[in-house]
Design goal:
The structure holds 2 protein chains of 2 kinds. Chain A is mostly helical. Helix content of chain A is 83%, strand content 0%. Chain A has one domain: Methane Monooxygenase Hydroxylase, Chain G, domain 1, CATH 1.20.58. Chain A has helices at 2-35, 39-70, 74-108, 119-138, 142-172, 177-209. The longest helix of chain A is centred in the middle third of the chain and has 35 residues, at 74-108. Chain B is α/β, with parallel strands linked by helices. A 6-stranded mixed beta sheet of chain B has the order 6-7-8-3-9-10, sandwiched between helices. The relative contact order of chain B is 0.19. The A-B interface holds A 1-2, 5-6, 71-78, 210 and B 217-218, 221, 245-248, 254, 257-260.
Chain lengths: 222, 262
């Protein structure tokens, strides 16, 4: 019986790692599609999301099955609960990658504008956070998870700054309003991905330390 | 270090206090310096693999082990501050205060009514109204009244297993104990009867201090407020059930409750 559960948990771990890799790759493609004005890459992201959705359903069913059949406790229970939540976050990140890809499809049809924020820095930072949150899960590393939480404040700050820039640019050149609004959305999507990465990191802290750290400030310093 | 990191939880105002309890069957030591406090009016579950000393331990609390010649006990068990291992302790009175329910139900081959008032009868109570009231009150408390109220004077042997176990609980309650010991009370019952007994245990909590030995980990998790994990005669970890089953402090406890043991 215990061996049966153990195998189920190992399978679940593999599935969630596979899903993380696919989600991470889709985010990378989506951000690149915008940078390179590549509609091919953007379409690839949009098509690929069906897989992520299917993986989410599979993982949820697997979690429910393990809960119902084995009534796990302690570390096993925390692992399954953490995976259930991380699963939803990853699926949402997949959707946000699609949203970014859709914005790139539109922006590719428009004259090239200067992004109202340091797009490359922000997208790299967000991808780093996502990668670190997944690594913290794979290696059960709460230290790395805390680092992700600390990073989130920086992304939030960039997002706020971007609103101010867009506002002044719209006033200065209202002819670009459409593009600027799409760019604003992209920034907002990136910021949401960082939030989901933070959620994943917080679930990893719960998984390892059994401590719910959501809604508490992160004082982690590099 | 926060309190939550101490594997043996200190208890405020415990009803049962166990201090350095050692028990030997001949030369074999079955309990090794067990010390902990059991809080009043709560359900405390004892878990651990077979032979870890759970049953031996609860049988100390009403001195059932006195019946075995080769047993030697050292240490202290206080109930409401009084050491019950003291040779001058009135064991009959102790067993009235500390009731017990066993794995296999054991009603007497008498009527349902006589089973419930057995304790009062041997204590010499003859007042019919008092006996009737006790029967009704105890059977209601044991969630059996509705099923047997029309056949109180029929033999208890005609009841189902689950009903007989509830009758044994009613019999234990009838003498107004403070503590009820339960040694695997559901292990021979089907899931439905088990659920009824579990509900009953939750109902009785608040009025009685219940100490239950169970092999069923989910049962311990469902019904108890506190859980003690024992292994090879030692108390390994003791704390709130919620904590033991979500984040135990000791690796041994985690290994046992998650089935990684051995």
């Amino acid at each position: 019986m215990a061996e049966h559960l153990r195998r189920g948990i190992e399978d679940l771990k593999k599935k969630v790692i596979t899903m993380s890799a696919v989600v991470e790759e889709n985010v990378a493609k989506a951000t690149r599609s915008l940078l390179e004005r590549s509609t091919d890459l953007a379409n690839e992201v949009i098509r690929g999301d069906v897989n992520i959705d299917q993986m989410e359903v599979d993982i949820e069913e697997e979690c429910l099955k393990l809960l119902a059949l084995h009534q796990p406790v302690a570390i096993d229970l925390r692992f399954i609960i953490a995976v259930l939540k991380i699963n939803s976050d990853l699926e949402r990140v997949g959707d946000l990658a699609v949203n970014i890809a859709e914005r790139s499809l539109f922006l590719a049809t428009q004259p090239k504008i200067c992004m109202p924020f340091d797009y490359e820095t922000m997208s790299n930072m967000v991808q780093q956070m996502l990668g670190d949150s997944i690594d913290s899960l794979v290696n059960l590393d709460p230290r790395l998870a805390h680092k992700v939480r600390a990073q989130d404040d920086k992304v939030d700050a960039m997002n706020r700054e971007m609103y101010e820039t867009v506002k002044s640019e719209v006033i200065g050149g209202p002819e670009y309003i459409n593009c600027l609004l799409h760019a604003l959305s992209v920034g907002r999507h990136l910021e949401r991905i960082a939030d989901h990465a933070t959620n994943v990191a917080e679930d990893v802290v719960y998984l390892v330390d059994a401590e719910i750290v959501r809604h508490t400030p992160e004082y982690f310093m590099d | 270090m926060p309190l939550s990191h101490i594997p043996i939880m200190p208890v405020d105002n415990p009803q049962v206090e166990v201090e350095k309890l050692d028990l030997y069957y001949g030369n074999a030591q079955a309990l090794k310096s067990v010390s902990f406090g059991i809080p009043k009016a709560n359900v405390t579950a004892l878990i651990g693999p077979s032979g870890c000393g759970k049953s031996t331990f609860i049988r100390c609390i009403n001195r059932m082990n006195d019946l075995i010649d080769t047993i030697r006990i050292e240490g202290v068990i206080k109930i409401d501050g009084e050491n019950i291992l003291n040779p001058t302790m009135d064991v009959i009175e102790l067993r009235r205060r500390v009731g017990m329910v066993f794995q296999k139900w054991n009603p007497f081959p008498k009527t349902i009514y006589e089973n419930v008032i057995y304790g009062l009868r041997i204590a010499g109570v003859k007042d019919r109204t008092m006996l009737d009231e006790t029967v009704e009150k105890s059977l209601k408390r044991a969630a059996l009244w509705e099923e047997v109220k029309d056949r109180l004077h029929q033999s208890a042997m005609g009841l189902s297993g689950g009903q007989m176990q509830r009758l044994c609980i009613a019999r234990a309650i009838a003498v107004n104990p403070e503590i009820i010991l339960m040694d695997e009370p559901c292990s021979a019952l089907d899931p439905r009867s088990t659920a009824r007994i579990e509900d009953l245990i939750r109902e009785l909590r608040g009025d009685y201090t219940i100490i239950i030995v169970t092999h069923n980990m989910q049962q311990a998790a469902r019904i108890s407020d506190y859980t003690a994990y024992m292994y090879l005669g030692e108390l390994i970890e003791y704390g709130p059930t919620k904590k033991i089953f979500t984040k135990p402090v000791k690796q041994e406890t985690e290994d046992y409750i998650t089935g990684r043991f051995g």
